[in-house]
Amino acid sequence: MLVKRFEDATSYEAPNHRGVVGLRLQGFEEGGPTNQWVGYSQFLPGGGAGPDSTPFEKVYVVLEGAMTVIVGGVETVLGPMDSATIAPGEVREIVNRTNHVCKMLVVIPYPTKVPS
What we know:
By secondary structure, the protein is an all-beta fold. The chain is 0% helix and 54% strand.
């Protein structure tokens, strides 16, 4: 078992994201998960990501606040404990359209090449 305390989480910058602070809760460390990593994203008002896609699926879980997810021109608002799976290659945009910070968990498989 690998226990990683919140105070030991490391920050990361995700491509094509704005107004967000990301912390890696699990992943990319010795003894950690072998097939995915878990991030904690805190999106400021107006913050978001995309539009873009990735070659692998991702799962979003909103913990606090609200996040608008746009796929194929359809907008869906996720609230606390709502979740969404974004399929590989699916173009999505996410936007925090509220005046509150949106806190989300993000679960993503490792890319084919693990960063150092």
